[in-house]
Amino acid sequence: MTREPMLWSGWGDPARARELPEPVRALLRDLLGVRSPETPPVPLEDVRLAPVSLSAALLEELGGVVGGPHVLTSHEARVRHARGKSTPDLLLMRAGDGLDAPDAVVLPGSHEEVAELLALCARERIAVVPFGGGTSVVGGLVASRAGFAGVVALDLGRMDRLLSVDAESMVAAFEPGLRAPEAERLLAAHGLTLGHFPQSYEYATLGGFAAARSSGQASAGYGRFDDMVAGLTVATPTGTLELGRAPKSAAGPDLRQLVLGSEGAFGVITSLRLRVRRAPAEKVYEGWRFGSFAEGTAALRALAQEGPLPTVVRLSDETETMVGLAKPDAIGASGGHGADGGTGVGSGHGAHGGHAADGGHGSRSADGGHGADGGTGGSGSGGAPGGCLVIAGYEGASVAAVRAGAAAVLTRLGGEPLGEEPGRSWEHGRFSAPYLRDSLLAAGATVETLETAGFWSGLPRLYDAVRLALHGALGSPLVMCHISHVYETGASLYFTVVTAQRGDPVEQWARAKEAATAAVVEAGGTVSHHHGVGRDHREAYAAELGPVGVQILRAVKDRLDPAGILNPGVLIP
Amino acid sequence: MTREPMLWSGWGDPARARELPEPVRALLRDLLGVRSPETPPVPLEDVRLAPVSLSAALLEELGGVVGGPHVLTSHEARVRHARGKSTPDLLLMRAGDGLDAPDAVVLPGSHEEVAELLALCARERIAVVPFGGGTSVVGGLVASRAGFAGVVALDLGRMDRLLSVDAESMVAAFEPGLRAPEAERLLAAHGLTLGHFPQSYEYATLGGFAAARSSGQASAGYGRFDDMVAGLTVATPTGTLELGRAPKSAAGPDLRQLVLGSEGAFGVITSLRLRVRRAPAEKVYEGWRFGSFAEGTAALRALAQEGPLPTVVRLSDETETMVGLAKPDAIGASGGHGADGGTGVGSGHGAHGGHAADGGHGSRSADGGHGADGGTGGSGSGGAPGGCLVIAGYEGASVAAVRAGAAAVLTRLGGEPLGEEPGRSWEHGRFSAPYLRDSLLAAGATVETLETAGFWSGLPRLYDAVRLALHGALGSPLVMCHISHVYETGASLYFTVVTAQRGDPVEQWARAKEAATAAVVEAGGTVSHHHGVGRDHREAYAAELGPVGVQILRAVKDRLDPAGILNPGVLIP
User: Fold this and answer.
1) I need a labelling partner for A495 at 20 to 30 A (CA). Which of A122, A160, A407, B514 fits?
2) Which pLDDT band holds residue A385 (cuts at 50, 70, 90)?
3) Could you tell me if the ipTM is greater than 0.95?
4) In total, how many domains does chain B have?
């Protein structure tokens, strides 16, 4: 397994970066009015960092806990732990702003070392940022420095073992720093799988999934990550918390659900017991076309409420469908339905991932005369149908029965089968959208995603409110949306926004994001379905929770982390 | 709908009480050595109560909030709110000990009145016991008086409305004091159901289900009650908590799961948004026979892990099967498989229900020479097969496919189909076991239940440990067990114990319960799968949670209820 770090200034494996084809550049120019010249990232060595504020004596003390070689203060190590992977994060990093970088990176090797680190940092008032895959898109990896002697990133990369497999209970125990693909590889040797495939999958860690309350592209079939967590061990400054004696219990509140989504603010997850499944013998993904987003939504609702539910089920709105279908090959590495890769999901340990940048901005849709975000189902050129695309995926020992049952529901509700090609295309590109984002950023377009969830009856209002807010804030952006997570009572809405950079792009997006988030809160949705809270959603989260909810979080935080060293400024309003 | 109160000294509708048939009396004598004379409860008016410790001025203030007629201090009202429905509760009540009764019963009519009551009680240091169905079997309805001016039962019986139905989202909103059968009647008018049928169903309330983290007999199909809760409104002394903007969210920890199971110690649930389902068009329950508990357990595990999962699935061990099958008609009202009615589940508001007394002590099994609890699969007489009985129930729009799929799994793993008669018998008696308990208590036998849950690989150890502890503490009790709730990773174990009363039966059971609970903790199980914590499990719960977990509960409690008025002595260690 590779423990290769990600590209410091963007996403993923630098070898997989792709240039934007000229037709896409033309699209950006003609459709969105992108005029900026190409702006490559500064060289890594030119990134500006603040001086290390921790004394040599304190660094030595940290080394005394984890071993000297596991305390890093190099320029590169600090840059690589400076921020997460939101678009503002990338814009800042590309511009050479590494001022949020930690003073040092410490890599513990065991629960005991984590516990000892927390005790030391509490005593010395050093802020601690738990760091897994580093894929937060909500500012989950930047600690408030005020009042602290310094900030360390607690990188869990050395704690990456599969600890045990209980095949009878279908529970496997892991260390938190294991990346998802490696976890799948280790489980595959036992014929097992977690089935957790968020868009951040290739770099995210298991501990990060838990801390960020992650949800994967196959959540309809395998459940959300919180459904998979049978037990947790958590190191806190107050001591160790050991949770999960049974799948379910009536012995008080389920405190596992208090740790899940706590984003490193209550403690550091040092091991996880996760429900596993048999690796599927069959996997089929296929496409369906619906006349409108409303019709497609009704079909997904029927699957969620009446069944049978596919393993993967997602519905793109008219705009996303148009863009994605218009020219599947225009964007190279993103694999066609770029927008359909955008089920981004959290992963940073103590932070959230979710890296959906869209997406397949096929040039032909512009050629065909559709204004940005104006499409309501018209066909893109190149013979692709209009309307709204559904991807339905089936995984299991045998999928024929569920596939036939779902097909009956989809057909009854107006769906037109498109065969397996759209499914293959989605599968090919499912983790690729963040690469495309890097290319778009370089070309002077801002692309970012945001997501929410609500009950079915409230989704139309939520959908309209967010789009209206984004249009109001950005002029004529391209706003695409899909539903990628369905429940009996509701679903998520995942928006991808592309706009020309105007003025300071970080400021520009901050205003748009603020407007969209306010619209979510006002329309009754949750501020995040799977990206998390981090710093970016903290104030809106307070509005969602209300003052008594905020008091609950603060009470737990104060008791477990009285010195407030854990991820200060993240999550807790 | 009837709001008739339960029999104060026992369970349910006094008109449904039944005398034990002579063969059962003979069984108690010959098998268990029950020698006590019949002991009827004292008359209600002879129950001893402490003087009302609240001043007339305070009672008037309470009346100022809820209206004078909604503050009750009558002998009968106090007796009816004195305790829950555990066997020790009933033994004490039957003996005329009502010393745990509240000073007054207050019946608020709205969220605002609940909030105002909590403010008043916090100011005046009056302990508040939220009271729903009054069906706790874990001491969840008795507050610690130390340091308080008095104790009031906050009876939610007047808050019993269905507030709204959102058929698109399949969510219905309710007030907390609505009893489950009335909720089902109101939903049936919309073609809907909750599908939540714990043994306490006939008297338990929706708020109690939530506060007690209840689980019903059909949890395999409809989920646990915690799966059904989409949203909650909670009145706390610190203010109102409003939770649930979406089915699922990554916006921080899921605080719904902190309220569920909080047993009234954090606040009073004043409304609930619950996921509903379409009322099933078909219902079929059937029996299967397995050679041993281990074989039956393997079959249930396969259903839970590979599917398809029936709506109801339960497995009795050899002893429970023998007793239940031996003479289905011997016990009258309990409907045959008395033991199979014992899926008792919580319900008291801020407290837990679960009322499984067993069960069908058919005389023939004694006649057939089986010692108490000694059967390991031998046939009861009367032609009934030995081994272990599985009840599988199927509910839905159409059940044939799931039924056939489950039958294939059960057959492959050694099951022998017994047809629908055992299913009908189970259905007939599913809520009746508590009535039988009353008759057995009157006859001088102690019958009580306890339950736990664990992961599949740990169940044999848990099963053995609990049985060993009960035998050690009680000499030669009859100990029966069933699995009634299954998950992919584990299951519950539900024990029913029948023993002759020796000495003070309350003390006798307390020692046995302490031994059994210690065995559960030692063997790695949870102290309760669906009965809850109450006062009875509080110390063992602390051992299960560990000191950091206890600190979390205390932190939340201190912040939400700084005066500590809510259910003092319950839940929080």
Assistant:
1) A407
2) low
3) no
4) 1
